[in-house]
Write a structure and sequence with these properties.
Blueprint lengths: L1 H11 L8 E5 L11 H15 L6 E4 L9 H11 L7 E4 L5 H14 L5 E5 L4 H10 L5 E5 L7 H17 L6
Parallel strand pairs: 1-2, 1-4, 2-3, 4-5
Helix pairs in contact: 1-6, 4-5, 5-6
């Protein structure tokens, strides 16, 4: 129970700092091709921080959902429609889970010699994202949570508690 409170505290207390790049973690796309309210909230937070000058580039990361849409492309289109230039958006079509997204972003950062990242997701996801970035050797990690809360968050926090320890003890550290 204490760890669930810690996950919540970490996630709700954004660590905003100027970063070389941001990553928006994917989520469900609705059957009409629009971002789910949860994903739209992540994108809205990204827009807000981008407009405030916290980062010059954005990685949109996600997989191909059961709804038939590529999350990264849907996120890219949303950001472009809302004023982000297409050349400021990088697509990660292979971000099927948190660790895959982190590994893909770490590779992008290495190729571009970038040193800092801002991760944007739901509050309960932030602690595990930070853990994963640390596992791939990145320590300059800013975070921001989407301003969206729903009933499912009550079970998402305990699920993240389990996922956090799974990532610590079961998931190998990438080389």
């Amino acid at each position: 129970m204490i760890h669930c409170a810690i996950i919540t505290f970490i996630g709700l207390n954004d660590n905003l700092q100027k970063s070389d790049i941001a990553v928006v973690f994917g989520n469900e796309v609705q059957t009409d091709g629009k971002p789910s309210p949860r994903l739209e909230a992540r994108l809205q937070k990204t827009l807000q921080l981008y407009q405030q000058g916290y980062f010059p580039e954005i990685v949109v990361s996600g997989g191909f959902g059961k709804e038939g849409f590529d999350e990264a492309t849907v996120m890219q289109n949303y950001l472009i429609t809302n004023g982000v230039p297409s050349n400021a958006i990088l697509l990660d079509h292979n971000g099927d889970n948190t660790l895959a997204t982190v590994q893909n972003v770490a590779s992008i950062m290495k190729n571009q010699n970038l040193k800092s990242v801002m991760a944007i997701s739901q509050f309960y996801h932030i602690a595990r994202i930070e853990l994963d970035f640390q596992k791939v050797g990145l320590s300059n990690i800013a975070t921001a949570h989407a301003d969206y809360f729903e009933f499912r968050d009550f079970y998402s926090v305990p699920r993240e508690f389990l996922a956090f320890y799974y990532y610590i003890f079961i998931t190998p550290t990438p080389s």
